[in-house]
Amino acid sequence: MADILLSEAEKTFILHGVRDNVRNDGRSCSEFRPIELELGLVENANGSARVRLANTDVLVAVKCEIDNPSSNFPDEGKLDFFVDCSANATPQFEGKGGEQLAVELAALMSRAYQTRESFNLSTLSIIKGMKCWKLCIDVLILECGGSLIDAISMGTKAALADTKIPKVSVIGSDEGSLELELADEADGREEPLDWHHAPCLVTLNKLEDSLLVDASAEEEACCAAALIVGVSPNKKITTTSIPGHGSFLADSKVFTRALNLAVDVGVKLNTALEAAIKKHQTLKPPPRGFLD
Fold it and tell me: CA angle, corner 242, sides to 101 and 147, nearest 5?
């Protein structure tokens, strides 16, 4: 998603490396860059995570609010994504360009979490048809160095794993109405979310006949087509998106190969991320890196 200018010599160097399955940072075409993870960085949030994917750096915070459920889904809670493309991350985020990208990224994350296979919103219901939890998921992009939505999806899943919501008691008043009582954080009566089925999004960039996993900003500038696939740990595809002008749909064999690769990479990424999250939750001080 980064828009940078490369010379013809730089593009040729990248292309020759991809043809030999040795990219300019030493990776094969199907490998991620080293990833670092930190949890619990935002004190005024119910959960938070920071993910660094080489030169891509995102911070995700989850805040829980009590809301009214939708009339179409009275027994479900809500997820609300907001993305802030900081102009400090890259000059391309200045002005309306960053605003438009932020809207597109938030919409893509919302689609990835629409199905119960990715996140069961019924677990956020408090009183059917009356009250529910709304999770406000705020994403701040600190640095953009390629594969932005991949890092956002990892940060979102990790932040949800770090989130705990207060236990709610329903109390009847003298007037016959219902009142909600929230447990204090000091009471320790907080409940974790069921985050294990949340998807990771994998971006595949097409360069000639090669499919690149986790393309750097420089590699993205060389590629004519991209495919984004949301993959849950149980190999379910939660969303697909083809950004930009290039298309994978012109060749059904390439599209099928790309989907299969995305699922394979996505399952491995989910497994590695879940293992890293569990280490963070059990070890003090927690480790920072995984997939390195």
Answer: 55
Backbone torsions φ then ψ of 122, nearest 5 degrees = -65, -20
Q: What SS3 state is found at 173? A: coil
170: left (phi over 0), alpha (psi -120 to 50) or beta: beta
Return d(Cα 131, Cα 240) in angstroms, integer. Answer: 32
* DSSP bridge pairs for 178: 172
Predicted confidence at residue 233, as pLDDT, reads 95
Give residue 175's pLDDT: 62
CA separation for the pair 292, 194 (Å, rounded): 27
Count of beta carbons in the 10 Å neighbourhood of residue 208: 10
- Torsions phi, psi for 206 (to 5 deg): -100, 120
Q: Token digits for 245?
A: 């002008």
Distance, C-alpha 121 to centroid of its chain:
17
Residue 236 to residue 265: CA distance in whole angstroms: 12
Q: How many CB atoms lie within 10 A of CB 100?
A: 11
Instruction: Supply angle C-alpha 285, 62, 148, rounded to 5.
Output: 85
In the three-class reduction of DSSP (H, G, I as helix; E, B as strand; rest coil), residue 92 is classed as helix
CA atoms of 271 and 243, how far apart (whole Å): 26
pLDDT in tens, 116-166: 889 999 999 998 888 999 999 999 999 988 899 999 999 999 999 999 998
Q: Which residue carries 């006949």 as its tokens?
A: 209
Tell me the per-residue pLDDT of 163-188, one tens digit each, with 9 for 90 and over.
999 888 777 655 656 777 776 665 65
Structure tokens at 196: 């294990």
Radius of gyration over every alpha carbon of the chain, rounded to an integer in angstroms: 20
